[in-house]
Amino acid sequence: MKRFLIVLLCLAMAVLSLTGCSNSKETVQKAEAPAEETKAEEPLKVALCVSGAVNDMGWNQTAYEGLLAVKEKFGCEIAYTENLGTADIAAAFTDYAASGYDIVIGHGFEFGDPALEVASQYPETRFVITESEAAAENVASYVMKCEETAFLEGMLAASMTKTGKVGAIGPIQGASLVKIVNGFEDGAKFVNPDIEVQTAWTGSFTDTALAKEAATAMIENGVDVIKHCANECGTGAINSAKDAGIYVIGDSYDQYELAPGTILTSAIYNVPVVIETAVSDVINGEFKGEVRYLGMADGVVSLASYHEMENEIPEEVRTMINNKIEEIKSGAFKAPYDPVVRQ
Fold this sequence. Notes:
- By secondary structure, this protein is α/β, with parallel strands linked by helices.
- It has ten helices and twelve strands.
- It has helices spanning 2-32, 59-74, 89-98, 112-119, 146-160, 175-191, 208-220, 235-244, 271-283, 315-330, and strands spanning 45-49, 77-81, 103-107, 126-130, 139-144, 165-170, 196-201, 225-228, 247-252, 263-269, 291-294, 301-303.
- Residues 1-40 have low confidence and may be disordered.
């Protein structure tokens, strides 16, 4: 009897032991089962490189505002480098690409060649260049039809001059800037084939003294309306025109506040739209290594308000320019595009 009880006790312990192992194994299996994880998508990293200051109320500030716009709209992580000289561009591009930036933007034609140089080493980075003809598998250029506003500004200048002499001042000669100076001349001669158009190049994007010197020389030679497309450097031309009491036409931004009563209007380049378009292309998988052209019909270039100067511009002149704007937008008129320096 005692032996029978001992056998029963052993059998009971064995059953308990087997049941415990089974429960333990099930628990371990549950613990080892991979839990579903929803990894948050990392924000797109976008960097901007510009040749001047991002608060210049002109060319570079428009790009910086575009950078802020994509941060707001797409939640991008952003960075920027300002005041880059031509010799420093490739290094800046390399630093951003090596740091894992998804998109690197160079604002201006001078960024095109460095982008092509660096892009082949960083195929996962997309390089976006404004006002350039650079294109490769991971390099795209977005070109604004600045010749459209330049033509209109030439029409305005020719209509407002009393001396029959107008001037255009640019920074460094490049296709994106030459087309503006030539477009201005074409617009002026559209109104008056006999008008004299003087041009000057400062050789700098930022040296305001050089533009002031060029403008002063023109004024002394009888010019009474000046158009600049000299980036930050162009502020010098505005100041010279203000001091001389003549008209000036701004560029890139509505620059009226820099010289109220002096600036007739400004060419506005809606760079934020350009940058948003480029970033959107990357996000939507539509990025192509090509050159895209965007103009008035796309809402990318326009003329600024005349502000208080509207009272000084004859109604027939404003009507003439408004009509030409509509022709450009509809495609009925195509502003001449000439990127070759004229002698």
